[in-house]
Amino acid sequence: MIRRLFRTKPIEQILADADHPTHRLKKTLTAWDLTCLGIGAIIGTGIFVLIGTAIVGDAHRPGAGPGIILSFVLSGLTCALAALCYAEMSAMIPVAGSAYTFSYATLGELLAWLTGWNLILEYGVACVAVAIGWSGYFNNLLRLAGIELPHWATHPPGGTEGGVANIPAAIIVLLVTVILVIGIKESARMTGIVVVIKLAVILFFIGIGSTSLDSSNWSPFMPQGFAGVGAAAAIVFFAYIGFDAVSTAAEEATNPKRDVPIGIIGSLTVCTILYIAVATVLTGLVPAGQIDIHAPVAEALQVVGFKWGAAVVAIGAVAGITSVLVVMMLGQIRVFFAMSRDRLLGPWLSVVHPRFGTPHRATILTGVAVAVLSAFIPIGEAADMTNIGTFFAFVLVCIGVIILRHTNPDHPRPFRLPFMPLVPILATIACLWLMWQLPALTWIRFGVWTVIGILIYLGYGLKQSKLAALEPTPSLVCPEKQP
C-alpha cells in the first residue's frame, strides 16, 4: 500500500503523455509571451489592492505601516529562491501542471495529488481574490465618472458592508473564460498589451507621487515592530505568486528549455523592483492609518490632490488586474488538465477542443466555479487561503529539486540551480516561516481542505490513476501446492 502511495511517474513518461495527440496543447508561446504572462500575473491585485490591508492591518494581523517596504523585500527574496528551483524543474519537465507535475516525478503520487489539490486552492481562490479586486477598482472608476452602482450589487453578503452579490466580479470572470476557451495565443497577446499599459501606469504613479512625498509619513517605520512586517510579508506574498503560473504554460512554449527560465526569473525581477518603489511612494504620500484598503494606490493620489491621476491609475488597475485574472485562471485550468490527463481527476476534463486546441471543459468548469465564488466571498479570506496553498506547493518543489539531483543526476538540465543545495534549503525555510505568519483560521481551513483531498484521492485517484493501470494485476488463482 505504501509503495502505491509514493509511486513516481518517470520523466520520460511525463513527456510522452504530453505529446499524445489526444491531449497535445499548441506550442505558440515565446520568451516574450512568457515574460508578459509572468508580469501580467504578478502585477495586479497584490499591489493595487492588498497592499492597503497589509499596511493598515485587520482583525487577524497587525499592519506593517511604512515597514511594508521590508515586507516586499522579504517576500521577494523568498520568491526569488523558489523561482530558481522552478526554473530548473520547468526546463527539465516542460509540461503543464507546474508543481503538481514536478512532485509526481520526485515525491510520489500522494504528494503530487496533494500538491495539485492545493494548487487548485491556490489558483482558484486567487482568481476569486483578483476578481473581487477588479470589481473594487471598476466601481472606483465608475464613481470618478459620476456613476454609482447599487450597494447590494457590488458587495458579498455578510459583514458590516454586506450586500447580495458582487456582480461585476462574476461578470469579468465569465468574460475571461470566453477568452481562454478561444486560445492561449490570443490570451497571451491580450496580456502583452495590458502589461505595457499597467507598467506605464505604475511608472506614472511613481513619477507623479514622488513629487509630493512627506518624509514624516515614514515615522514610525515599523509601528507594530517586526511582527507587523512579517505578517504583512505573508499577505503581500500574494502579489508575487504569478511567476509560478509561467511554469504551468511551459507545455505551450515553442522553446521551453530556454524560454521558461527567462520568463520566470525575468518577470519576478522586474516586478520586485517596481513593488518596492510603489510601496515607498505610497507610504510617503499618505499616513499609514489613512490609506484606503479597497483602492489604495488610486485613492492616495486623490488624497494629495491628483484627482485626474487617480482616474489614470484606476484605469490602469482595471486593465492590469484583468491580465492577472487571465493568467491565474490559465494556471488553474492547466493544473486541472494535467491531473485529469493522469486520471487522478475525471478524464473528461483533459479533452482538448478540436478547433481551438484548449482544454475547454476544464476552462468552463473553472470559469463558472470562480464566478460564483467571486460573487459571495470577501477578498481578505480569499488571499490568505491562496497564500497557504502556494507556500505548500513551493516547499514541495524546493524539496523535489534536491531529490531529483540524486535520483536522476544525468538527466539534461538546460538551467542548473546555483549553490545547490543551499538555495532550495533556504527557500524551504523562508516559505515555512512566512506560512507560519498566517492566521490560525487559515491553517484550520487548509487542514480541512487537505483532509478532503486525501479522502478524494483514496476513494478515486489511487485506483483510477494511469500509474495504477500500468501495474500488474495480482492473480486471483492460488498457485498449485508443490508436493
TrEMBL record:
Q: Which Gene3D superfamilies match?
A: Amino acid/polyamine transporter I (1.20.1740.10)
What is the top-level taxon of the source organism?
Bacteria
Q: Which residues cross the membrane?
A: 34-56, 68-89, 110-134, 165-184, 191-213, 225-243, 264-288, 308-331, 362-379, 385-405, 417-436, 442-460
Q: Which cellular compartments is it found in?
A: Membrane
Keywords annotated in UniProt: Membrane, Transmembrane, Transmembrane helix, Transport
Recorded topology in the membrane = Multi-pass membrane protein
Any one cellular component term from GO for this entry?
membrane
List, in alphabetical order, the Gene Ontology terms for molecular function in this entry.
Answer: amino acid transmembrane transporter activity
Where does the UniProt entry say this protein principally localizes?
Answer: membrane
PANTHER family, alphabetized: CATIONIC AMINO ACID TRANSPORTER 4, INNER MEMBRANE TRANSPORTER YGJI-RELATED
Q: What is this protein called?
A: Uncharacterized amino acid permease YfnA
Tell me which species this is from: Nitrospira japonica
